[in-house]
Amino acid sequence: RTKKESRNGYRFFSNQMQLQSTRHLQLMNAMRQAITLGQMAVYYQPQMDLTTQKIVGVEALLRWKHPQLGYISPAEFIPLAESSGLIITIGSWVLEQAVQQIQQWQAAGIQDIRVSVNLSSIQFRDPGLPALVQEILQRYAVLPQSLELELTEGVALENPQGAVAMMDALAQLGVRLSIDDFGTGYSSLSYLKRFKVYKLKVDQSFVRDISTDDEDKAIVIAIIHLARSLGLKTIAEGVETPEQQAFLLSQGCDEMQGYLLSRPINSEQTTAFLLAHRPGSHL
Ligand code: C2E
Ligand code: MG
Ligand code: MG
Ligand code: MG
């Protein structure tokens, strides 16, 4: 490597970094107004009980469409919202949208649908979280059992004592807690014993190659069996094929979620989906 090459290499690298931080700044600025300008929406992805084939819940997934920048993935903007602190405002908004939606569905005769909401570890560390959840549930007269909160393994890692106290406070309200992307974190399994967890979400990276990769298959089986022996429920994420569904059912997984059943859809589409899949409906 000549001196000139390495200098060019450095310049290329710093240009890349600059481009990236320009985009980040652009997104962070745009995000501040995204809710008030009506650019954000909560979509829902249906979840099905594998044994009864009934729709038992939906996961709330945030969507952002900017008029100039187009559709921006939550995988890109959520980390930026976390680093800027804006996730507290956005997260409360998602929570309120979801609970209001439960109220509307119940008023339309759609009962027994659980809505799960993703919580950032930043929200999870906010001491005001349990009071906020309680206040929103009361405002819309929604029972806590209708709401599920999804956490990642990371929250247990950062501050185990604080996490236990927060989980206790949330569980005390009657909301259910699930561990998202289970198996991808680095936490010890002992937290499952201490935390008031209700359900494990088997990460889609293990589900994807379930039919062809023996190791992924072994991991999924181990998670389902671990959950069962601890008295926890399981849901598999990212189910795209009937083969994956059949395998999960054969292993005793409780629920599934994925493109095979439905992509995340907007509020109106979800209402239609839930009405069409209501027990007794023959659409
Ligand atoms: P997640 O909570 O693990 O959500 C599942 C992701 O998998 C969603 O991506 C969903 O659209 C996608 N997915 C579902 N079924 C399939 C499938 O069959 N195949 C494939 N390939 N993908 C599938 P999405 O909506 O882009 O969200 C990405 C992540 O962004 C979420 O992962 C979650 O961590 C985060 N996120 C989304 N909405 C929120 C939110 O309101 N608050 C917070 N804190 N995070 C959110
Ligand atoms: Mg999730
Ligand atoms: Mg997940
Ligand atoms: Mg994820």
Automatic annotation (TrEMBL):
Q: Which residues form the EAL domain?
A: 24-278
- Please give the Gene Ontology molecular function terms for this protein: cyclic-guanylate-specific phosphodiesterase activity
TM segment ranges: none
| Domain of life according to the entry | Bacteria
A single GO BP: regulation of DNA-templated transcription
Specify the protein name. Diguanylate cyclase/phosphodiesterase with PAS/PAC sensor(S)
Organism, as annotated: Methylophilus rhizosphaerae
